[in-house]
Amino acid sequence: xxxxxxxxxxxxxxxxxxxxxxxxxxxxxxxxxxxxxxxxxxxxxxxxxxxxxxxxxxxxxxxxxxxxxxxxxxxxxxxxxxxxxxxxxxxxxxxxxxxxxxxxxxxxxxxxxxxxxxxxxxxxxxxxxxxxxxxxxxxxxxxxxxxxxxxxxxxxxxxxxxxxxxxxxxxxxxxxxxxxxxxxxxxxxxxxxxxxxxxxxxxxxxxxxxxxxxxxxxxxxxxxxxxxxxxxxxxxxxxxxxxxxxxxxxxxxxxxxxxxxxxxxxxxxxxxxxxxxxxxxxxxxxxxxxxxxxxxxxxxxxxxxxxxxxxxxxxxxxxxxxxxxxxxxxxxxxxxxxxxxxxxxxxxxxxxxxxxxxxxxxxxxxxxxxxxxxxxxxxxxxxxxxxxxxxxxxxxxxxxxxxxxxxxxxxxxxxxxxxxxxxxxxxxxxxxxxxxxxxxxxxxxxxxxxxxxxxxxxxxxxxxxxxxxxxxxxxxxxxxxxxxxxxxxxxxxxxxxxxxxxxxxxxxxxxxxxxxxxxxxxxxxxxxxxxxxxxxxxxxxxxxxxxxxxxxxxxxxxxxxxxxxxxxxxxxxxxxxxxxxxxxxxxxxxxxxxxxxxxxxxxxxxxxxxxxxxxxxxxxxx
Length: 622
Prior knowledge:
One of its GO terms (molecular function) is transmembrane transporter activity. By secondary structure, this protein is mostly helical.
């Protein structure tokens, strides 16, 4: 019997991942899937499920986004392309806080199961849609599900990783897109060219099947781990009443934010189709009413909400606020600039949807690869704030290059280069901001702050989509009226680029393309102005020690002095290979790199770990 086994019998300490009822007698009940409560096999099984699910969902997103313009054109409503993403973003903004609260009460597994069910129902409805309204209904279910999948997957990552590793794992979650971009591009043209015009429905059938498999790959291990972790915790979940649920989830706040965003943002996209445009009192009245509801939302959250959608602790922390606003601005700018870019390339360069989709993928590819690059930099040099500054500056340079790249005679190289430079900077800044915002809160607030980031990203999508729709439907008609002198149906010139514009006479088509390019350049200028605001937000950021353990991070988040976390007689002691109890500092000085340790904490509990990592200076539980 080795020394470790003898000591286990002596002190009754379970090995890591095998916890008994004495593990945490005073532990407050929570649904956090902490790594210390899992075995290695459970952890790797769960993470395999997370990555497979992420790959399947990203494949669906790449393909359905690639044919989205064609589907809108199928219903001859290209100018309303921004409506469906706006609906999705509005719902995401309202649903994220509810999902994070539900997952904190009922567990990550139950919340994700509901999310996947709604997601698959939405794909089914979209695939069977017979008119544009049906697509909108499908988007409601789809958005409800996708919101939960995206938000709770990030929560699971934050639950199970250390602060230094979190950036890499966030990046790994998105790496499936690197493959899916190209695979989806191969399928776009076969689904949009030749044969029945509605064969795009095959994409939704295919995606429903693939996404269903991905859902099972995550749900099965997640439920298993959820049950096992719950058994290992002695604490019992308290009984909850319906009144408690309504208060805890801030149903009133969620309803107000949904109403406010819908009433404020949808008129920006739909006003052009209303009689009299913005002179129509109904359009102006709906927008004004939405603004009033939005003001009331702030009053409600500040004065009456017992559990606000986003805690005031987030807004009063400079680093959390700055990081969240950077992610928000990146999303706003992206949606403003790229919402109608594929359709513009289709018109100006006589491309198919698949070719146009491929031409703009440089942004997404660079974003994904440089997210991973940023994660490696953060882990190696432990500097997140510097990565944000570099990312934002590179991003602004890329967006600035997009202005000349939107000219109808711009080279393909300039189009791709501007996209790629902006994507590289945006990916670095977004990843580093995600790490920093989770590094300044208590572990109990991880789900809340991840939810807050998802809320602002969704809000950014809603604002960006509505801005894009508003600018496009208002500015493009004025450009068409100004530059098109030949007989052209201006409504079809906006809404039917695939057939009507491509079949115009060369002279008339050149005038239409010029008007489109002027509108695109104007949107790029607006996007550059939004991107520049990121510099102000970066200036708010404070240093975050990425090497701190979770206990230290929790004390800082609670306003306590991390240096006074333990008194001298409360310091953790360690038994090295069963020989003698020594202080942590003595182990570090001894240079021991491989040994068996037992950690005895101040409350008398013990936990086994093995392998002291001298570079990272923290205990590794294997």
